[in-house]
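Message: Just now I want nothing more than another pair of eyes on a protein record. I am handing you a single protein, as its sequence and its fold in token form. As I understand it, each token names a local backbone shape. Take your time, and here it is.
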Amino acid sequence: MHPLQPVITSPVGLERALADRDALIQMCLYALDRARSGGVVERLEEGLAAIGVQALRPDGERFDPAWHEAGGALPTEDPALDGVVAETEVTGFADHDRLLRAPIVIVYAKKTP
């Protein structure tokens, strides 16, 4: 075995590998928030997706407070749109089924007379 190759056959080695993975994911999210190039953003998102971390942009989906954070409301007269995500302001991320960061969204809300 190469001296720099990580040993993940023991519980301690696995724990360290998972902690390192989490740290790298957090660094990628930090970089994504500051990236100015669409190409860099795309490449970082592709790399994260390859290890199971998905970008969450729930436009058009029903608002779910367990997975989304409301950042505002957009009035609508269409009752079918009430409670539907109109736009994602800040992209969220999930690591498989674990929410890392909720997307901040604008939600359609029934216009009051």
Remarks:
- The two ends are 72 Å apart (CA to CA).
- The chain has a mean pLDDT of 92.
- Residues 64 and 83 are 9 Å apart (CA to CA).
